[in-house]
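Field: sequence (string)
Field: structure_tokens (string)

Example rows 1 and 2, in order.
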Amino acid sequence: MDKIIKDELNFVQVTGSLDSFDFSHEYRGEKFYKGVIKSVRKSKEIDSIPFITSERNIVEKIEVGNNIKIKGSLRSYNIFNEDINKTQLQILIYVSWDIELIKDEKVEDTNEVYIMGYICKKPVLRNTPKNRVISDVMVAVNRKTFKCDYIPCIAWEKTAETLSKLKISDKVKIKGRVQSREYEKEINPGEKKTFKVIELSIFTINLLENKE
């Protein structure tokens, strides 16, 4: 494993095609840009993952359609959604390293996440309509700036069973991938709206000794 990953509490790297890229805002004289990277799974499903980056990370000209690699961390934000009249948790990648332009079109997309944090919501084990075992949980990941990000995580089958046995405040180390999915929700009688969710799909989860 790359040493840079070992040293991080929250590390994500994704390669894929740049689907959108626009100016977002300016903060203390520094410009920030928002974009979406599309990463293809081995199953051929496509994850559309939002990210934000400072202008200082754009060392080469990038355009929509380019293949790129981004490295950073998962960040969470609460945003008010007028459609459902309540606040929703939004997840994106905050790019911390230079964006790499990939010129080899034969390179397969990659998507990997490593986080270390604390269970802050009791995992729930359930079955899908197709009778697959699934469990989801919220993991709190501390930033070095004393802030905290809340990352929704999901696991399947045996990993889901392992996850469901954990307790609130357990310290865990997780390896997985960022995934996007859509779901429909009835916002008014007879009126449904499609919502998009970004979450961490767990590959492995390990319980760590909590010395704090």
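Row 2 begins here:
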Amino acid sequence: MFPIIAKFIDARDDLSIQVHPNNMDAMEKEHQYGKSEMWYVLEADPGAYLYYGFTHPITKEEYRRRIEENTLEEVLNAVPVKKGDLFYIPAGTVHAICKGIVIAEIQQNSNVTYRVYDHGRVGPDGKPRQLHIDKAVEVSKLELPCARYNFGGHLVRSAFFTVDRFDAHCQIDTDEESFTSILVLDGAGSISCGEDVLPCRKGDSLFITASSGMSYLSGNLQVLCTRIGTI
């Protein structure tokens, strides 16, 4: 199974409030990996915000009651966002992207999502989309989220992926330990590796296979580079 998914999300409406289990819980209950992820904010409307954990520690009983009474948003940590903001969201963190935000997301490759609130939306069958209250209550971290991580100079450095941001006129070394996944955040230019030169621009997604050696960015590119594991 390919270990990560790299994608762009353009939230034109509030997305569902959800949580993902860690690897151990997901393998036990869902027979697949859990999900930790990161968000890098590319655009944000004035007043835009997202949900990241809780404003204060709560009990499982209060958590369940607020989900059932549709008052969960009252205790969620609403964080105003602007272009360039970064969020690391380890498994177990309740979160949601709200309207007016465009993000680049790097995540573990997993389909396990426990939806805890969905703003009353209905599915194709005309019925409210399924919530996963019992599972969410079991895996959610109910304490305050971590406000600051030390990733040793990287945007994110975890057991699952390491992410860096680079501008043009730099070089990227792709060794035998991992591929390099590249999301072009802004600008236009090219990436060269050996005799190959590939034009690219904002919105492109590129993949450099392991053991490809040195690649070079040119133009006015701004990119996110992701490798698996820690470096």
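free_text_note (row 2): The mean pLDDT is 95.
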